[in-house]
Design brief:
The structure is a homodimer. Chain A is built from 14 helices and twelve strands. Chain A folds into three domains: 55 residues, lambda repressor-like DNA-binding domains (434 Repressor (Amino-terminal Domain)), CATH 1.10.260; 128 residues, 3-Layer(aba) Sandwich (Rossmann fold); 131 residues, 3-Layer(aba) Sandwich (Rossmann fold). Chain A has a six-stranded parallel beta sheet, with helices on both faces. A six-stranded mixed beta sheet of chain A has the order 7-6-8-9-10-12, sandwiched between helices. Chain A is an alpha/beta fold. The longest helix of chain A has 16 residues. In chain A, helix 6 runs parallel beside helix 14, helix 7 runs parallel beside helix 8 and helix 9 packs parallel to helix 10. The interface between A and B is large, with 60 and 59 residues. The structure holds a DNA duplex.
DNA sequence: TTGTAAGCGTTATCAC
DNA sequence: GTGATAACGCTTACAA
């Protein structure tokens, strides 16, 4: 084949491949997307031409003509929290294996930004959308609706039943760990929660703790529940604050792993033995902290599985396969060996 | 304006907006992309029509006609390592603020996969590409070259000077921390490195340590340098292995934060006091470990800054502005208060 | 099995 | 300042 004659300065296009392979553009297109609908010999010639020219399909043209981009958008709060990074990683990996590419947007818990990046993704023509959490700016659902974009909510379960979702029951997880501590004999509790405004996961965890305590006739004293952003420094600060009350808590439940580790650091600084003098509990991934310091009780969320599952859900929908509209992933209560009953006073 | 007459079941397109605003499609297009080239009154009518119809531009069509997607691709090893997640997060944020969307690909240190996802991104028409590291599959550079895609390598510095890059000098960082330990009086060293095959950052760090030691006439004994994947379990295992030698090391340098924390956990399990009996050093982000356990020396890499810088570099190139073709970001040697000299024997 | 040709929804180049 | 109109590169009936 005479490559020189057809390869000019610009990047090769479908017509160039067609000319070199002595077939029509339509045949090349078919060979590329539906290989079985083309004669093997022809397909081979086309493959050679593609190779020779270094042809790479023009996605925009392909998308315009086929009305699909083989692209999935994900909108998450942040990648700075390992928990979301892991989910996103699994998402990307699963999509890639299916020939899809991930478009990423993050908003750092700002609803306006979330609406903007979601719009940007829709404008880019994503075939599907993964949204983190169940509460979103109204315009987000409006856009999804008018563009008829398949989507799935993750990391929380939609109570209304209106949206397809795959996630964890944050409230139930909180109830579970609280009950565990109650069974251990703890009665003086404190909570260092995440900022609940605009974060339903943080809110549900806090509500879960309150609910479980209430069932035992216990209420959190006003100063015993603080809300903090997810940083180590805030965790330390939070621990100091909940310690200011009249009654020292024997158990402190933290809204996530970062807060728990911050609280742990502050306990060390204050010379408080964990868990002998004070029991610390967190959510999400406490592997690192637990590796270094025993005595942390954890509710572990399988975040990678979540990402893979969300991707599969969407891919199945796009393939027209039936899917469950609501999937609850199980979470695990991880009790480290040395988790202790409350100290006697 | 009579919305009903023009809004059918399908999503609105440019022509619909044009009809409703009583102008031509060309004018709407201009109003959307070059607002100053259109009369304010007209622009206002168009804005209203866009609002009324909930019009969202069709990215593929736009890309096909304008030959740009306002999309940047990033290819990273994994998001499961916080260090890359942070960089990616900053990248996405900076791009979003400039009206660009991030397409993400990851490969988990597999060169074949890297080539595949890079191709996928190019096929999606990314206007620019961020690649992590300086060594890549030849086909990656070939594709970038034939498609004339602006790109920047990150997290390492290209020695050949052939590629634009912004990153850290991993070797220099390793030399620096090793010298620090030497100055402290340490003479018995061990290294728990990352897997160097296919990972030049891990390799450079290991070489840096070797180089600094060699300058003092010290060579690592065969069993004193092990390579491990970046997991906590591997870090623990690595520590046990380097302890098997005849001479117990007084200083163990770990290839990254995860390995260091794993090693730290194992020290605890073995009843070895850190840093009194053995000094532990890591790279990347040791904030969490340091919050829980003092005594770790760290080389800190400003990973978020790297992501933001890489984005800005690319955006400047796309805007036709001049950029430095090689930028080295400074790293910080973080010495925790209790880092100790080697024990006397 | 392969070819022809009509779009897909924008942008860009001209006129006006 | 605004309006026709021809690309942009591919997919997909429909024909052959």
């Amino acid at each position: 084949m005479d490559v020189k004659r057809v390869s000019g300065r610009k990047t090769a296009k479908l017509a160039d491949v067609a000319r070199l392979a002595r077939v029509s553009a339509a045949t090349v297109s078919r060979a590329l997307t539906l290989p079985h609908k083309v004669k093997p010999a022809t397909a081979a010639r086309i493959r050679q031409a593609v190779q020779a020219l270094g042809y790479v399909a023009h996605g925009a043209a392909r998308a315009l003509a086929s009305r699909r981009t083989r692209t999935i958008g994900a909108v998450i709060p942040t990648l700075d929290n390992a928990i979301f990074a892991t989910t996103t990683h699994a998402l990307q990996k699963t999509l890639d294996e299916a020939g899809y590419t991930l478009l990423l947007g993050s908003h750092e818990f700002d609803a306006e930004v979330e609406a903007r990046v979601t719009r940007a993704l829709i404008e880019r023509g994503v075939d599907g959308l993964v949204l983190l959490g169940t509460t979103h700016h109204p315009s987000v659902f409006r856009m999804i609706d008018t563009h008829q974009i398949p989507y799935v909510l993750t990391w929380a379960l939609d109570a209304s039943g209106r949206h397809p979702c795959v996630g964890f029951d944050n409230r139930a997880a909180a109830i579970r760990v609280t009950r565990y501590l109650l069974d251990l004999g703890h009665r003086e509790f404190a909570v260092i929660a995440g900022v609940t405004a605009g974060n339903e996961r943080a809110r549900e965890r806090l509500e879960g703790v309150r609910e479980a305590l209430a069932a035992h006739g216990i209420a959190l004293a006003p100063g015993s529940a603080v809300e903090k952003p997810f940083t180590l420094a805030a965790g330390r600060e939070g621990l100091r604050e909940v310690l200011r009350g009249e009654q020292r808590p024997t158990a402190v439940i933290c809204g996530n792993d970062v807060l728990a580790i911050g609280a742990l650091a502050e306990c060390h600084a204050l010379g408080l033995a964990v868990p002998r003098e004070i029991s610390l509990t967190g959510f999400d991934d406490m592997e690192i902290a637990a590796a270094v310091v025993p005595g942390l009780t954890t509710v572990h969320f399988p975040t990678a599985e979540l990402g893979a599952y969300a991707a599969q859900h969407l891919l199945a929908r796009l393939a027209g396969e039936p899917v469950e509209t609501r999937t609850e992933l199980p979470v695990a209560l991880v009790v480290r060996a040395s988790t202790a009953p409350p100290p006697h006073r």
